[in-house]
Amino acid sequence: xxxxxxxxKMHGCGNDYIYVNAMENDITDLYAAATVWSDRHKGIxxxxxxxxxxxxxxxxxxxxxxxxxxxxxxxxxGNASRCIGKYLYERGLTDKTEISLxxxxxxxxxxxxxxxxxxxxxxxxxxxxxxxxxxxxxxxDTPMQGTFVSMGNPHYVIFTNTIDQVAELGPVLERHxxxxxxxxxxxxxxxxxxxxxxxxxxxGSGITEACGTGACATAVAAALTGRAGRASQIVxxxxxxxxxxxxxxxxxxxxxxxxxxxxxxxxxxxxxSL
Length: 274
Hints:
By secondary structure, this protein is α+β, with helices and mostly antiparallel strands. It contains 4 helices and 17 strands. The protein is globular and about 55 Å long.
């Protein structure tokens, strides 16, 4: 018997996902839902599917699961976490302006900037970056020299004047043998005004308008290589994120907007179009 799933389309700097309140909706097949519903021609259209649910660990208020457009499950998404903060507050699921969110890469703290009942921006504590992880990066040579940064998920940041190479080389590097679990790829260029123009190839989704963890990884890589200080403006295809790599606690803080697009209902189990 088919049922209807209520969903909300949201985006953070153009990085758009389908959000489902899993406390009220039970999806039959998550892989099929992510792939079928994300189709931009025959489905809702998105970079993937995000489930908002109760926390299952102590110290967290809510949890998130995220599935890429190809059905693979991701560890974390910075843009999605900001959208979840806005969703939870404006839909009346919490009155907190500081929310602890359980993810597959740890508990993230969301700090909401609220005016007149509207969440104008969200700052996410993305915790500490990591630079050595044999499960994510073997250290073997890649076609282009870059900086590996893990923000709970793997990123490889390449500084170049020709950032549009992301379309050609992104899919090659994503599946390179250096990255046992595939990798997110950033092509970045420091502009004369100090801002960092970045394009991203997300594993499992391809080119996206923005990537929160990718922006964090780019800012960290820029600081590590002496291209920028510990605070950066990362300009992505869909908008700008403010990133600070704090000297006080070594955590990376990401600040940016989140927006509702529309609400709807869709058939479950997912029905692929012919």
